[in-house]
Specification:
The protein is elongated and about 95 Å long. The N and C termini lie far apart (about 100 Å). The longest helix is centred in the last third of the chain and has 43 residues. About 75% of the residues lie in helices and about 0% in strands. With about 140 residues, the protein is mostly helical. It contains three helices and no strands.
Length: about 140
């Protein structure tokens, strides 16, 4: 078998496995965060979590597929390791950037919700005070 094909197979197996592992980890641990962001609405948190996971899979697996092709033929075992280290390193960086982007956006949404909750007065107004009269 051609060494380039071996490198492709190893790249696909490792990249897809990493993508699935990261998506499951983010989904499981992100659910609590989403419930907080969405003010305890569990059904909405589950729906948003599922949509985020689907988008994560689509973007990352699409990138893995597009990044599959290589420019050079691999001639030896050293070439396999060099090609795999470059490809897997880039895939890991993309996974990390996607994760940080998701957390950043969700944190912005959460902060906005916290700010809105803090703008409400702790007790309803109990009276009205007339504005001061300016003396001439």
């Amino acid at each position: 078998m051609d060494l380039t094909v071996v490198a492709y197979v190893v790249y696909l197996v490792v990249s897809i496995s990493l993508t699935v592992w990261v998506a499951r980890t983010l989904s499981r641990n992100g659910r609590v965060f989403l419930a907080d962001v969405l003010h305890g609405n569990e059904k909405l948190a589950d729906a948003v979590n599922h949509l985020l996971v689907v988008g994560f899979y689509l973007v990352n697996l699409g990138f893995v597929a597009l990044y599959l092709s290589g420019d050079d033929d691999i001639a030896d075992t050293r070439g396999i390791f060099e090609a795999l280290s470059t490809k897997l390193g880039v895939v890991l960086l993309v996974l990390g950037v996607m994760h940080l982007g998701n957390v950043w956006v969700l944190n912005k949404i959460r902060r906005r919700g916290v700010m809105e909750r803090e703008q409400l007065p702790p007790v309803p107004p109990q009276g009205w005070t007339a504005p001061p009269v300016a003396e001439a």
